[in-house]
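Quick start: load a record and inspect it. Here is DUF3592 domain-containing protein:
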Amino acid sequence: MAINTGIYFSWYAKSKYSITLVKYGFTVIGLCLLAGGILLFNNTQNFVSNSITAQGIVVDLISVKSSESIHYRPQVKFETSSSELIQFTPNTASNIAGNPAKYHIGDVVDVIYQPG
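Running the structure step on this input writes:
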């Protein structure tokens, strides 16, 4: 009784090829993510090194509806080094907004901004 080894080697070659594709595919994806992380780090580092820190105060809480709940974004007012009053509401909800609100009216917060 003869064993057909051609089928086994055919499957093995396809399997080895697939594993190689997956291995190099994940390597390329990993290197792209690493490069993106380095670029984001450098961008943040550049922003922070060229910025000024000021004390701001939460003057209002803006409610924002999402599909599942309501979040509250703080509206912050601060004075720049050139005595200009600036009031803003952060547009990111990941760290700042929350339910219940993470900040309250009258809270003092640090603000990092670039002059000019």
